[in-house]
Specification:
Rossmann fold; seven-stranded parallel sheet; 8 helices; 9 strands; elongated; binds ligand LYK5OOP5; cytokinin biosynthesis; LOG
Amino acid sequence: MKDARGDYHKGPVTLRGKRVPGSTTDQRLLDNSGDAEWVHSDPWRVMRIQAEFVEGFGALAELGDAVSVFGSARVPREHPTYELGVQLGRGLVEAGFAVITGGGPGLMEAANRGALEAGGASVGLGIELPFEQGLNEYVDLGVNFRYFFARKTMFVKYAQGFVVLPGGFGTLDELFEAVTLVQTRKVTSFPIVLLGCDYWAGLLDWVRGSMLPAGTIGAADLELLHVVDTVDEAVRLVRGSGEDQAARRPE
Ligand SMILES: C/C(=C\CNc1ncnc2c1ncn2[C@@H]1O[C@H](COP(=O)(O)O)[C@@H](O)[C@H]1O)CO
């Protein structure tokens, strides 16, 4: 609406001069003619983003203790690392955790499969991709996201820790998002476990041999990553942190 000075106010936004629209918001709302391009505009995008958060929070609020598992979308079922993923899903459920993955194929499917077969909650947070394959068949609670950043919030908000299986760029993105949140203390008591010493050795060497001497991380930051070779060790590390959190929880 226009004020006495002729300024046009649209929520917190003030428009002046040639930016003042020739029609009011109500006029545009009630005018059914014209093209439908507006549904693809940023304000509508914000509504869809909000809806993703609301739906994600609603679906996961009662999940209970959970661990997010990341790993390659490309590892086939016959590969030994797939079996490691199945065992991880199983081990986490036996330790009392729900398992949250990206809901896709490969090692996500493996962890969901282990979780489901062990009788636990098996969550898949799917993402809309051009080459999307849908949720894997071992997900029993699935939420599909259009936006990576909304989905990432769910991985952190509803988990007590992360276990990271071998993976590519997607897995590294999720790993370093978590590391940054812990490093900047946006989340606390949040173990990040890399499962597969051989696979992760090169990355860890580079972190120690290049990042540390360059001063882009501190020595204490190295402690943020736990690298292990067995499911038992991974589960022990995330369970340990769960106990820390329980001890600090108010009565
Ligand atoms: C590549 C293929 C399918 C991709 N489908 C995905 N579905 C769900 N989540 C995915 C998918 N691809 C990547 N992600 C996320 O990134 C991580 C795996 O990425 P990487 O590059 O394979 O390591 C994973 O944790 C997901 O959250 C068809 O083969």
